[in-house]
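Students often ask what a holo structure prediction actually looks like on paper. The answer is less mysterious than it sounds. You provide the chain, you provide the ligand, and the output is a string of discrete structure tokens encoding the 3D arrangement of the protein together with adenosine-5'-diphosphate.
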Amino acid sequence: MLLCIDCGNTNTVFSIWDGEKFLDTWRMETNHKRTADEYYVWLSGLMGLKGIHADITEVIISSTVPRVVFNLRVLASRYFECRPLVVGKPECALPVSPRVDQGTTVGPDRLVNTVAGFDRHGGDIIVVDFGTATTFDVVSKDGAYIGGVIAPGVNLSLEALHMAAAALPHVDVTMPERAIGTNTVACIQSGVFWGYIGLVEGIVRQIRLERDRPMKVIATGGLAELFSQGFDLFDAIDYDLTIHGLRLINDYNKGLKA
Ligand SMILES: Nc1ncnc2c1ncn2[C@@H]1O[C@H](COP(=O)(O)OP(=O)(O)O)[C@@H](O)[C@H]1O
Ligand SMILES: CC(C)(COP(=O)(O)O)[C@@H](O)C(=O)NCCC(=O)O
Ligand SMILES: [K+]
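The corresponding structure tokens follow.
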């Protein structure tokens, strides 16, 4: 069985693929100090709770935090006796190479989202991932990552206001009823929520203009739902996009070896 690990700057997601379906998905806070033994105790505990007896023989990792990869590699070798595939490393092939400036690196999560988005929705799409940062990945007709946008994440924007302005409290993101807030919390929520609706609309419009063709917008990440209520921003929301892409990239690399 295959263990897929999607490590973002905020959370790390683990999911087990049994060859036909994902058995379950678990999330922990990303922390580069966590050891392989700690990961294993946590993971085996959760598997035990669900009665999952998975014989993990393969591991694939995408990590936007380079420092966590070392301990995840140790997890794979010590507990699952395998060498993990790490997206973005030369030994991990991609079905279509990214077309970006020479010498630049693309976040592995964005490469994975590109593969998954192309598989499910075809080419000429924009994948929007609401994570620590909000990323827009532009996928060409033939499935290549050809660039995109990195914007501050929703929670990051709220946190930045709270950190920088003495009188502004920490606020959770929700959809305010009106744009005109009549108290501080409502004003902040309005700024972030309506600001984000405008950001997504504006960026998508500009990308479509630059590409000069219709492009579907596929959203992923926990906050995608918040921005889809009553708005026509997305053609689809795929919460499991990144995990699906990891599975596809693992299959692709196995196919190359076979
Ligand atoms: N359904 C949700 N409602 C509110 N906040 C959420 C939800 N899902 C994720 N978040 C928050 O969004 C931020 C990004 O989450 P995540 O997608 O895990 O980021 P990353 O992939 O960068 O680690 C985190 O601060 C997380 O707590
Ligand atoms: C933009 C990101 C920080 C998003 O990461 P996340 O929000 O998922 O933690 C990550 O994709 C990254 O570090 N990218 C490298 C630069 C680039 O993709 O161009
Ligand atoms: K992510």
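The mean pLDDT is 96.
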